[in-house]
Amino acid sequence: MLHIKCPHCGMRSQNEFSYGGDATIKRPELGKEISDQDWDNFVYNRKSLRGKHWELWQHLSGCRQWIKVQRDTATHEIFKTLKANEEIS
Amino acid sequence: MTQSFRLESGGLINRDKKISFKFNGKNYFGYEGDTLASALIANGVHLIGRSFKYHRPRGFFGAGVDEPYAIVQLYRNGETEPNIKATEQELFEGLEAKSVNCWPSVNFDVGAINNFLKIFLPAGFYYKTFMWPKSFWYKIYEPFIRRAAGLGTASIKHDKERYEHKYEYCDLLITGSGPSGLASAYSAAKNGAKVILAEDKSRFGGTLLTSEVNIGNQSGKEWADSIISELKEMPNVTVKNRSQVFGYYDHNMLVMSERISDHLPKTKKYHPKQRLWYIRAKEVLISSGSIERPIVFGNNDTPGVMLSSAAKEYMKVYGVLVGKKPLVFTNNDSGYETAIEFKKNGIDPIILDTRKEPQSEIIEEAKNMNINIKNSYVVVAAQGYKKVKSADIAKISDNKEELGSIENIECDCICVSGFWTPTIHLASQSGNKTKFNEEIDAFVPGISKQKEKTLGAANGIYTLEETLKDSFEKGNQLSKKITNKENKVSFPNVVEKKSTVHDKFWCVPLPKGKNYKRFLDFQNDVAVSDIEIALKEGYRSIEHVKRYTTLGMATDQGKTSNLNGLQLVSKIENKVVPAVGHTTFRPPYSPVSIGAIVGREVGKHSKPTRKSPMHSWHEKNNAVFVDAGVWLRPRYYKRGDENLFEASKREAKNVRTNVGVCDVTTLGKIDIKGPDAAELLNRVYTNAWLKLPVGKARYGVMLREDGIVMDDGTTTRISENHYHMTTTTAQAANVLSHLEYYLQLVWPELNVNVVSTTEQWAGAAIAGPKSREVLKKLFPKSDVTNEGLPFMGYMEGDLFGVKAKIFRISFSGELAYEVNVESDYGYFMWEKIIEVGEEFGIQPYGTEALSTLRIEMGHVAGSELDGRTIPYDNSLEGLLSKKKDFIGKRSLSRKAFAAEDRQKIVGVVPLDKKTSIPEGSHLVKDSNAPLPNPKLGYISASCWSVEHDNPFSLAILKDGKNMIGEKLFVMSPLKNKVIPVEIVSSHYVDPKGERVRS
Known about the structure:
The complex is a heterodimer.
Chain A: E1 3-6, E2 10-13, E3 18-22, H1 36-43, E4 52-58, E5 66-72, E6 78-83
Antiparallel strand pairs in A: 1-2, 3-4, 4-5, 5-6
Chain B: E1 14-23, E2 26-32, H1 36-42, E3 49-50, E4 57-58, E5 71-76, E6 79-85, E7 95-99, H2 113-116, H3 125-129, H4 136-148, E8 163-175, H5 179-190, E9 195-198, E10 214-215, E11 218-219, H6 220-233, E12 237-240, E13 243-249, E14 253-259, E15 274-286, E16 290-292, E17 305-307, H7 308-318, E18 326-330, H8 334-344, E19 350-353, H9 361-368, E20 372-375, E21 377-383, E22 390-395, E23 407-410, E24 413-417, E25 420-422, H10 425-429, E26 435-437, E27 442-444, E28 452-454, H11 464-483, E29 494-495, E30 519-521, E31 526-527, H12 528-536, H13 542-549, H14 562-573, H15 577-580, H16 594-598, H17 615-620, E32 623-628, E33 631-637, H18 644-657, E34 660-663, E35 668-673, H19 677-684, E36 697-703, E37 709-719, E38 722-727, H20 732-746, E39 753-756, E40 761-767, H21 771-778, E41 794-799, E42 802-807, E43 816-822, H22 826-837, E44 843-844, H23 847-857, E45 904-910, E46 922-924, E47 937-945, E48 950-957, E49 967-972, E50 977-984
Helix pairs in contact in B: 5-6, 5-11, 7-8, 8-9, 12-14, 18-23, 21-22
């Protein structure tokens, strides 16, 4: 079970969180023209990375905040966690 | 029976307390502190079971967790449990155990014929043989394999015992209470660290209990006892015996199973049987010691052949002799300790040492005691079937390949020592890449991967002095870092006998003309010849060899067999052992009961149960409940002998003609506040929300980004910047997360707050033509006329002094209202509704009538909004705003979603107006078409229309728009039904929607 540092609550066990997928995907702006390909990339197409990966988790059974977690998909090592409003650098 | 193999004195057992027990129906007795194994050996019982594949006789091989043979079926307090190691099971009064894998009895076992057919049961036998003909599998092969295989029988009864889970955090977790565990725990505890020390056995001390050493002028055992009692007194230390740390998981989490009651005749009241600990440790010290390695020779599985360290443990801990004419077969100094112990107890052992001229302190001691030592000697084969009777021995050449002439000597046990294998399982599970240590001929942990350090024998350190020094130091260093305190412990004086190098010899060659089975894996009957076949057949990777031959795959997880298997593969392949590598160690280290893993979450505790505040009223009024997610909802209220069908029809009909009331507390409710609340709703829902006036409700549909309908419900504008959203019962949690996702990550600029209020409000739906009359009585001060509270209107009211929210919304399609009060007043509200409604013929209705009412109205619900349909499919396309963008809108212009013949919701009526249509059935054009019959659609929901008094269903049908009036067939291969039907509008009742506005 992973041990995730919630930027709001501190170190918590994985079972308090739910997974939310790739954190680097940006939703296209509302009302903006967008090609089928770009829309498909937003909705469906994801890379299945091995290694460092920025992903979203929600601290569901805690503060309910969505957070950004940089995790190694092969080793589960967690390098960094950010609040929702903090930019991935 | 007399305990003919019990020594007259000695051991750590309590000879004052006799314990009687039963094995295979026979009565025996042992002493308090015995294991089932030690008590059986004391009673001269050496045959305990039959082997897995060949049904060869099985005795005892070890004295603890590494035991591959002595697995029994245990009977305790009316329950039975398989897969119990006799070497681990402590004796208790009235214990009953039976042999497994033998029929009709352990002494005469029919399956033993496999032993004589062994030529036909080579590696991969099952893969090769049971392949064809295919039809034989279910009827012949599988039942045969199932009966023949397996170690014991699982109970089919409900387990009455309690198993608990515990979460714990600590600074240092130390796994094993041998010298390294005790030393590191002691120095860490002295520095004030929070320490958990776990010991698998009932006694603390590990090898200190059996070794002849002296620490600080005390014997090993005395030193261990004093350290443990001091640790137990310290408030920062938790000391646990009977506790096996069996798994090392991510982020330094380890799992330990504590056996609390397994050693007692009966679990004490309010005690669990076992407890599973999830331990998050800052640092982990692995002090799991090492397991003695066997040497491979002919018939080395015969009862009486056992590890030399086990023989010593039986004598020193239990006061039991494993034999009276022992042969010690060793390639290192450890065997001498066992031989000396025999000699001290008046038994003359013979030592066969594979080494030519070994010299060390302990060998000198053995010589001085006049023990018969034969150098450069090996056991070629054990002789005897159910027990060792003699051994064929021979001199071996210096290159270890040629055997001299065979001699036969009488013996009743062969104690084998092939040196020591560090127990690296936990280290390996942590992700540590192990490395091969040439000196000890075994793998040891490499560079730490997580926060683990390995100590003592588990790390390949076999001298006590070095082990203690290293362990005191590691415990001190690691704890100092955490507590910033140092309270250094002085290092005790250690006296131990120096030993010399071991002989890297592990397998005795076969003598000419002999074809003895030489076993590597004792539990799965994998012999040298099986590995040879696998390699001949082309298996190269050690992982493949393992799976093909089942080497190391039994419940003992190859604790005694892995390394010798590797040696063999590397020898045949002409590689060095590290190049072959070892198979992956996976948790659990030793078997864990399913009950312990499941914990308390069984039966009704497997998930939480949510009940509405009106639950007890429903109970009192004969409600029959149904699970709706984790909620319990009334399905119908039984009157007299009514069944589900009759009751739900009555309840639905009463709504259509009079008035009914339904508990809708379970609906998800989300409170939305903030200046941008309307903007959020406008983006989340597909229809327009910016102009909804205060005091009005609106129906809305929300999509996922892929265009699929996520949920629907009504949202009411309570005041300028305050909205009350409702969701379906099932999607409540997902919708909240969905809103939070967009607010926190996508549109953080929106100034809105959302919070779940599902639990805060109790809800009642009052529906039917007479519902307004009920409302008038409930809220005499409010204007609830059609003008005062029009359809989709909202107002606050005073319900006999309780503040209530009144929504004029309808799911049933009748004139209807939903009344919400704070949950604590829910019961009061419900009673009042029933009370004032009585004169209008009010009846409560359950989910079954609720479904009937919505189905015949053509209102969609979870069975249509099933994660596969878009708004058009549910005839909700009228709610798609063309003027604004919303979540998922872009996806709706995808080709498939805009296709001309896209599926759409329709109504379905059987032509005979009698036959009920099973939900999930398929719609086809021609019921006689050859398979696969093209499927046009599926039945999503079925009911008995109370309005038309005939069956009615909703279906999602291809090109549904143009299918009204068509005649099709409903096919349900599961129920073996073919029903001719007509396709009608999904709005089967009140298609113009006049009633809700009346």
